[in-house]
Every structure is written in structure tokens, then in C-alpha cells.
Amino acid sequence: MRAWHVEAPGPLTAGPLRLRTGPVPRPGPGEILLRVLACGVCRTDLHVTEGDLPPHRPGVTPGHEVVGEVAAFGEGAEQHGFGVGDKAGAAWLRWTDGTCRYCQRGAENLCPESRYTGWDADGGYAEYLTVPAAYAHHLPVGYTDAELAPLLCAGIIGYRALKRAELPPGGRLGIYGFGGSAHLAAQVALASGATVHVLTRGEQARRLALELGAASVGAADAMPPEPLDAAIMFAPVGELVLPALEALDRGGTLSIAGIYLTDIPPLNYQRHLFQERQLRSVTSNTREDAREFLGFAAEHKLSVTVHPYSLDAAAIALSDLKNGRFDGAAVLLP
Description:
Layout lengths: L1 E5 L10 E5 L9 E11 L1 H8 L15 E8 L13 E4 L2 E3 L5 H4 L10 E2 L11 E5 L3 E2 L7 H21 L6 E5 L3 H12 L3 E5 L3 H10 L3 E3 L9 E6 L7 H7 E9 L12 H5 L4 E4 L5 H13 L6 E5 L3 H9 L6 E5 L1
Parallel strand pairs: 10-11, 10-13, 11-12, 13-14, 14-15, 16-17
Antiparallel strand pairs: 1-2, 3-4, 3-8, 3-17, 4-5, 5-9, 6-7
Helix pairs in contact: 3-4, 3-8
């Protein structure tokens, strides 16, 4: 099979990715083998490729928004409700120990031993991959393979970030950055009756936000037209944390959705945090988050904006993502 590997993490211009041909992996105990039908291109893949997040496995294959067809089972994997030929999703969270205090209290996303697709183990920039069956996802119907792929990280993480932001019913939500994750989280918020204000740099992204129902759009560092009850930071830009906090109304919460963020400048307590404003991070997701969001997607037909690329064009897709050349999400189609 063909698969991309992060040979030497560094700037995309230095060619850190290499496309190689190798054997199809064999599923281990409890694992299923998926033939990749589609794999979303996530900003986390870019961080792993460029070394902002050093790969946990040398030469790792990126990709963790994987829609696949079950091709084979490892020992004991059949008990999780998948059959050969079924569609299944592989997402960022690949494994947790299930025994630590975080797992025991329902916070498996904080498990110190957690492992991740496309970081600790080979991901979906390939024609096949393996995934523990207990961490594979049943997928909603009514979507193409390309549309399903971004749901498996962009959608799930955006959903958790929205939960962490504690948006009150009918509240005012600010969204900073408007890529694959943000355009899905915005639809979840709008479906709940929220007013959504989008602040982002890209003109294409602003047009998409308005098409989806945003009440206003503006520059990434601009002030929204009204105080916010909650905000989500999708852009990995620490400097934007200050205007986002300043835009919050009393008691408002800003959640930071990304795994990586540039440094945050010094805060002024009165301007940015006083009046019980909160700043919260988001770390991965639980499988329960995934089930809730995919259930929502099954009940509410989401508009998923995708831009297809061939598997051979993975490096181009990452470059286009980095430079903001598309709205929505890029998807590799082997």
C-alpha cells in the first residue's frame, strides 16, 4: 500500500513528508483493519508534520479523520458491532488505559497514557490503517465519505469546545477562526438558537460563515458588535486571546479548541479576566463526546464544506491549509 510518512519534521517547504510503498498492516488483538475511503486534513496534522508537535513515532503517517471500510479483524475485535464491509471511523483518540483516575471519572481525554491516531500510531494518509475496535466509530448515514471525514475530529473537537465554552441557551457566541472545525461548531450552536459572530482573516471563510447563518463577520482581532456570552478560539494564534477575552460579557467563557497555540501576551486583569470571565483549554475528547456529536449529525443534516485532494496531493493540501487557501475542510481521497 501507499502511505505518507513524516520523515523529518520541519517546514513544508523543506519536504518533511515522503510517500512510500509498504506492506498492508496486520490488525493486532482487538484491532480492525480499515481500507481508507477518505481522510480529513486537520491542522494537527500540520503541527505534527512541521514539528510544532514532535511525532511520538519516527516516520509516523499523519491523519486522524478517517472513514474506512472494515477489511479484517484482529483477535477479539468482532465483539464491537462491526462486520467486514461496514463503514467505520477512526478519530484522534486511539487508546486509553481505562484504569487511571481520569478514565474512572469519565475524563478519558485526560488519561496520561492516552495514544493518538497519526501521532502515536500510523494514521489515514494511507490506503489502509488499523484502529482498536473499541475506539472506532459507527457513522451517520446521509453523508458522503468526504463529508464524514471532517466530522471525526473537526466536528468532535468543535463540539467539545462548545461544551467547554458553556454557552447559555440563546446566548451570543464568538468564533475566532473559521475552518473545518469552526464551521461545524457554528452549526451546532445555531441549531440550539445561539447568535453567532465570526472573527476570521479569510474572505472565503467570512462568506461561508454568513451563508451558514452567522449574525456578523469581522477581522480576527476586531470586536464583535455586542458582548459575548461565550467564545471559542480555533485559530492557533495566542495574540487573539486578549481581544477574545475583552469581548466577553460578565461571566463569559473563552475555550481554546486547538492542541497547539502560540504564546499568549501578558493579560491585564481588569480588561481581560475580571467580572468572572474564564479561560479554558480543550484537550482531545472522550468517546462519549464523539457519540453525542455523531448522533447530533445523524439528526441534523450538517452542511459540510469539503475540498477533495488525491492521496498523492497530501503535501499540497497541508500547504493550502496553512496558507488559508480554502474554506471548510480538505479531504484526501485515496
